[in-house]
């Protein structure tokens, strides 16, 4: 078993490895190597990079195992490295670019300041996340790509593990560009959908629904879930929504959903659920990002979600693991 000193130094070294992976993602190295090995000079020319500097990064990337030497000074992708290609299923490229984007990098670097004062240093510098994204289209595009890719694994689990039989209408609350809703509708031909999000978010969702042949089964509605959500849904989906908000705000969102849903309706919350043990877990990593970027946002345990639902007159019925660290929590109106 590694000593505590080794574990600590592994964590310290992680920042250099992340920076190398970020460089690979930003420069599109994996895309350039997709068709076969290249030497550092040719790779640098294709990526618009400085050859000696790129060689040093490639040396680190080789040690991580995402590229390997292919003779005559050339490098090729490994199976692990292929996950950084833009066209790879579940590509990690957009996630690296998002986490390495200047404002997100700042947020994590300033975590000590956030912990010292109990307020997000990110917000103090850049403002609320979604306002920041709205004012920076390029960052917003990277964020949307990241969220879409991240949702792919969760969505396949949702479709495979949850029974939508009998559902007439599903409302995807804060559903972004509609990728999750489109996947659920394709798998359930008799269902209709409503995509609900802020105006600047849902503006282009119609293009996706048209391309997927779903335009006649899905409508988009713009608004704020703090005011209300579209009424008449049999199922309301909140995917990676509640963890952005503190207790009072999350309860307010759920109360609006509770008021809007049909009798016998249910609420599906797709989130990472924190375990009760001390073992490493994706949710604990994500929770520090929530701490860094939001004032009040957090990952929650099963017990905390049950309490959250109860405050909104809902009752947690079931928790289903979907894979990749995500879980689906199902709630219905509380019994009288």
Give the overall shape.
globular
| Overall CATH class of the largest domain | Alpha Beta
The tally of beta strands, per DSSP, is 11
* Total domain units: 2
Radius of gyration: 22 Å
Order of helices and strands: HHEHHEEHHHHHHEHEHHEEHEHEHEE
CATH third-level topology of the largest domain: Rossmann fold
Largest sheet features: 8 strands, mixed
Relative strand content: 15-25%
CATH H-tier superfamily of the largest domain: Vaccinia Virus protein VP39
CATH architecture of the largest domain: 3-Layer(aba) Sandwich
Alpha-carbon distance between the termini? 53 Å
Which percent range fits the helix content? 40-55%
Uncertain spans: none
| Count of alpha/pi helices | 16
- Classification by helices and strands: alpha/beta
Residue-averaged pLDDT: 93
Overview of the molecule:
The chain is globular and about 70 Å long. The chain has 16 helices and 11 strands. The mean pLDDT is 93. Strands 4, 5, 6, 7, 8, 9, 10 and 11 form an 8-stranded mixed sheet that branches. A 3-stranded antiparallel sheet has the order 1-3-2. Helix content is 49%, strand content 18%. Strand 8, helix 15 and strand 9 form a beta-alpha-beta unit. The relative contact order is 0.09. The chain folds into 2 domains: 85 residues, Orthogonal Bundle (Arc Repressor Mutant, subunit A); 183 residues, Vaccinia Virus protein VP39 (Rossmann fold, 3-Layer(aba) Sandwich), CATH 3.40.50.150. The longest helix is centred in the middle third of the chain and has 25 residues. With 336 residues, the protein is of the alpha/beta class. The N and C termini lie far apart (53 Å).
